[in-house]
Amino acid sequence: MPAIQLTTAQRKDKRAEAHHLHPVVIIGGEGLTPAVVKETDGALNAHGLIKVRVFSDDRDTRDSILTALADQLNAAPIQHIGKLLVLWRPVPEKSKAEREDRMPAPKVVKILKFSKSGNHRPQIKKVKVLGNQRIAAGGSLKRAKRRTTSIKKTAAD
Questions:
Q1: Segment among 20-24, 51-55, 100-104 with least mean pLDDT
Q2: What is the pLDDT of residues 112-135, one digit of tens each?
Q3: Three-state secondary structure along the chain?
Q4: Angle between helices 34-47 and 59-73 (to 10 degrees)
């Protein structure tokens, strides 16, 4: 599969996005093995934009690894600086499973209460919120009120 071709401006934007990222895949002395390719593919599916660190002192080897990964995984080579390689591929859309019998699950929510003086640490309280509850402005739990139906509708049923 051929690598994705990007314009200079698009490549520049991707380089800026990748600046703060840490390497997700590390290629050691064995070089480009099928396990490394599989791991890189999984990282591209999860993140889209990744950094790869190559522990090789030969620049030509690192160049060949970058082009091989881009070709095998249908990704765009963004940058090769030192021992870091940057690859990008659009993240595939995740399909959601449609289920009708699904109910909202209980959630554990952290509630922070700050001290009035400001000298003490805030109190952290974990609360389990059920589907029919909500958290009020003061941090207390409130139950959802039952909807009132009109008398005419209940009489018609």
A1: 100-104
A2: 888 888 788 888 889 888 878 888
A3: CCCCCCCHHHHHHHHHHHCCCCEEEEECCCCCCHHHHHHHHHHHHHHCEEEEEECCCCHHHHHHHHHHHHHHHCCEEEEEECCEEEEECCCCCCCCCCCCCCCCCCEEEEEEECCCCCCCCCEEEEEEECCCEEECCCCCEEECCCCCCCHHHHHHC
A4: 60
Q: Checking DSSP bridges between strand 107-113 and strand 141-143, what pairing results, if any?
A: unpaired
**Residues in CB range of 102: below 8 A, 6 or more apart:** none
| Residue 9 identity (one-letter amino acid) | A
Domains (range + CATH), the chain: 8-88 (3.30.110.60), 107-145 (no CATH)
Residues 56-94: tens digit of each pLDDT:
999 999 999 999 999 999 999 999 999 999 999 999 887
Q: Which residue has the tokens 């805030």?
A: 122
- Give the pLDDT band (50/70/90) at residue 101: low
